[in-house]
Amino acid sequence: MEADMICPCSSSADNLVSKCRECRNTSMTSSSSSWSLLSLDSYKVEEYNQIWRVLVASLKGFTIGAGLKGGLAIFALLPRIKRGRKSIHNQMKQEIASRSADVLLALKETLRYGLFLGAFAGTFVSVDEIITSLGGHRRTAKWRALLAGAIAGPSMLLTGLDGQHNSLAIYILMRAAVLASRCGIKSKRFGKLCKPLTWARGDIFLMCLSSSQILSAYILKQESLAPSYKSFLNKHGAKNAVVLQGMRDLACGLPISNIDAVEKYYKSTGLEIKLDPHMKVPCTILHENQSCGSHFISFLIQAYQRALPVYIPVYLVPALLVHRKGLLRRPYTILAKGLLGTARSSLFLSMYCSSAWMWTCFLFRLLKKCNIPMVVVGTFPTGLALAIEKKSRRLEISLYCLARAIESFFICMGDIGCLPESKSLKRIDVLVFSISTAIIMHCYAIEREVFRSKYLNVLDWVFGVPIPLHEVTPRKNRSRSKSCPDIFLSNKDQLNAAKIF
């Protein structure tokens, strides 16, 4: 025991307890936001540099933000670039100017989101290090990440001051709620209250609930949706504005005011149709002379082609960032998984959009009428398409759509006067985001087991500090260590936590 306490810088027995300044600097405790580094246990990290950790975390955050946003922007611009080439051939200067403006906007958005995540990571790590230096590692371990996450939250303002980002804030709030509920499942005090959240098909139910609001708003009140999301739905919903207007009039019990415009639109596509002004169901407006079944099949094929460019960057960019080392060792395995995931997710999105029209047409035909409640009910089973997706991605997608649905719902309620306007709090999205990030980072520091491994790897890559190879880390079966038996769940609780939603 005494030999372990001797300072490595001296062999004198007088230095059994106290260490020299150099030895203390090289054995200082890391304040990495991982369980082994933020919990009450301390680990030695050699040649640890706080400033370097801040810079590296900021750079990695910027890389993830710019990479994801830039990748999505590139694939969104590809169809416009192709159209731009035709515009050059036809000498259409207005189209060229529009394409240049789209490219400039994409570059600005890429830079903004890169700065946003870079500033968030840098601010969190900076506050984490400052609190550790002032208050000590062990004494501040239980609340340090909570405070640092809250202080880093306003970094969201770097995405732009011209408008609120309610969807992003609500989505992060949903993620924080999931993590908090997973913590509640293994809690003796709140375990019974959180037990219903272990329902295995809860993610599909949330998707159905979200689809009912989102798709109803897409048909009946598009102004309640965020502009970028409305553009996404218009692209993959693949219905012209005059077609949606005709369906909207019929659902609201109004005379169809744009029959001539609908007929003219279909005539421009090479179809001659004659619409009945007194029609009861909008099937003829939606899919001209096609039957509902044949329209579903043809729409599904076209929707799949539109969905592929959406998911290629979703799988490609993480593969380059997270699995960059694995690509060198086993490139074919990782690329095959990426291609399979792209094909599967594209099938989900195409089936989701196609079934939206299929279910509404089926209900209209069955009851031989069209109104707003039937639109809401008809779009509910559309969420069943989520079952196509991989189980690990279902919760992510359902929470994203739920955030969009909540935002749209409250906008609709506000428009009809059911919600009072708050003039004192203009950026409530920043407040919600800060609270959510505080919860998430606290769970990351103290309750790491409630995270899925892929998210944990990304967070460790951004916020973590290198640990000596001889130390036991959370990735080296830390749960088997006898020094912290109460931190990890029992097998039964782990299963319940993994099955949440």
TrEMBL record:
It is found in: Endomembrane system. InterPro entries: Tmem135, TMEM135_N. Residues 291-410 form the Transmembrane protein 135 N-terminal domain. Its main location: membrane. It is a multi-pass membrane protein. GO terms for cellular component: endomembrane system. Keywords: Membrane, Transmembrane, Transmembrane helix. The keyword Transmembrane applies. Pfam families: TMEM135_C_rich (PF15982). PANTHER family: TRANSMEMBRANE PROTEIN 135, TRANSMEMBRANE PROTEIN 135-RELATED. Belongs to the TMEM135 family. This is Transmembrane protein 135 N-terminal domain-containing protein. It comes from Lithospermum erythrorhizon.
